[in-house]
Amino acid sequence: MLRNLKLGAKLNLLLLSIFIIIVFLSGLLISKILEKNAEQVITDKAFLLIETMGSVRNYTSNEVNPELAPRLETEAQFLPQTVPGYSARQVFEDLRNRPEYRDFFYKEATLNPTNLRDKADEFEGNIVEEFRQNASLKEKVGFRSLPGGDIFYIARPISVSKESCLRCHSTPEAAPKSQLATYGDQNGFGWKMNEIVGAKMVSVPATNVFERARQLQIVVIGVLSVFLLIAILLINLFLRLTITNPLTKMAQLAKKVSTGDMSVEFKHNSQDEIGILAASLNRMKVSLQIAMNMIESESEN
């Protein structure tokens, strides 16, 4: 089949094959690069959020808690504003009202929390245990599969770093009365100083991580395809003007010469391979004409 195709068709077939291979391989490479870049962008934003929540926790612990702590013994209900984790979560929920953070989620997953809302599930509990077993592990990043889809998460350990935390989490006897009235005496006790009790976790649906990468991938591949098509058109135009058209004319000249028409001549001004071939063809025509004249002269004699 290829043997019957013209040179231009064969060239276009070759260029089309190269185009498909380049777009396919570039698409795979670009996809990986853009996915890594999108993941890094999300990671940087999540790390910033965790750092911010850490600052909120410190502010609550150092500034808010000392002011409200005396009221914990007199209030009928516990004041959650004294808890650093509560403040961090409330600030984060307010932050989620902004479109760029709407899909982010924050949880202080705790093995034995006072408020069961913060109870770590099995997956989160395993992460906390990793932090407990490996003191040098300061953060963990990865993907988690859920029924609703995969999520990308970043986790950092929560440790008991201040004595004030033990007031509410050491024993029920030491806990404020309002805390016991609100949450009971079964959960959130037995914590020890410097113990890792949970993990701060920021998560976002994995589809959001790669959506931007896919959009950029489509744009980049589209631009690359346009430039490749332009290159193919320019190569076709160049080859048509410099090779295929001259070869077609030389083939027509050779056909006419073979039928005895010696009046034709092919002119090609360039000194490239086509020009050399054209000059050789013209010399061959002249030599053939001289030979034929000699034969005719001998025949007349």
TrEMBL record:
A Pfam family assignment: HAMP
Domain Cytochrome c positions: 143-285
Entry keyword set: Heme, Iron, Membrane, Metal-binding, Transmembrane, Transmembrane helix
Membrane-crossing residue ranges in chain numbering: 12-30, 218-239
Protein name (record): Putative sensor with HAMP domain
Domain HAMP: 241-293
GO cellular component assignments: membrane
An annotated Gene Ontology molecular function: metal ion binding
One record GO biological process: signal transduction
